[in-house]
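Hi V.,

You were right to ask for the full record rather than a summary. Here it is.
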Amino acid sequence: MKISSRKRTESISMQQHASAEITTLPNGIRVVSEFVPDVHSFSLGIWIASGSRDEIEGKEGVFHFLEHLAFRRTEYRSTKALADAFEQMGAYSNAFTTKEHTCFYVRALSKDFSKVYALMAELTLSPALDLRDIEKERMIIIEEIHSCEDEPEEVIFEAGEEVLFPSHALAHSITGTIDTVSSLTRSDLLKARAEMYRPDQIVIAVAGNIPHELIVEYVASTFTMPVSKKSSKNREKPRKRKASHAMQQRTFQQGHVLLGRVTSGLLSKERHALILLNIILGEGMSSRLYQSIREKYGLGYTVYSALDLYTDSGTLYLYTACDNANIQKAKDAILHECNRLIHSAPVGKKELERAKAQVRASVIMSLESMSSRMQALGRGLLEEGHVEPFQETIQKIDAVTEEEISRVAASYCETRGWSSVLLHSHPSQH
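Predicted structure:
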């Protein structure tokens, strides 16, 4: 199972849907779909508003653990039988956990919808949570954590979250730690699962050649849990903090530089300007960081910026990997670009239009993917409470002015406001 990708692409959550249909069932589950008649496939996602930031202290990684166990065994099928059932239809099923939600998803042919839906309902609603499977999956997740510790970008971004969100749940690792994963019991998993599967926190999203009425009929007959008596989640918004700095030594081949800061979130008015600022800073070969760090100074091969937007806040990161001797030089060069952006070389009309063109192309090209459409439906309804037509998204991007970009740059690119993590390499001796 995948966790949210560390190769940080901005979580734009673009809404590409002019004709999405939404039905709320009596128990609170929401069904959203887009009928696409000229394809022979569909993508289905079961979205749950429980992510790593919702875990209690000491139980970090429990939702990711449950995501893994769903594919391990159900009350009716073994792991092998479950995999065989999907693959004999050519269906691809997987899942991912993020800071704010969990999603089980599948891509398959429209003619197999009823069988594929039944399998997805089975693995999400009827996992066996067998003790032997729990122990086996515990070992697999611990190996996943070890593999992340071998990846410099994983390590530095995890450290970045801890620097930006000290003592806050947004700093929790999605996989949990070896200590927390080792200590989770079957009772912990059952308790977390009961909290997770509340109907007011579930969205079923489908894009493809499947009628909305059929999806609603299937969901109503399977997701029959009663109305939740608990109130909605009360997530704590992170407080504004002063810049903080950390340094580590690790056995990697390169040094690594990460600058980060907390931004406003998905629902803020500056969201679209932030998306464009991120592209201008470090998305693509024409971006300022790429042109400076790689092309002008030759300091690093990998360089980019990354924007993650949560419901109540977000993060903007600037990253590069370089020779150990060039860590400070690379950090200074990044900060110099931020300073130029505010003071001596503000974003002009041509540069802004190029960034807008990248977003427009991304939105329009994603319309050709049923998975992208489904993800936009699910994310939009779960995180923002509505589904925005793609034309409206493009209009909002196009409406961002040079003055707005300048204001957002002034708010976030001021050099003293960046927190930092520096990883000094200390290659192992073999």
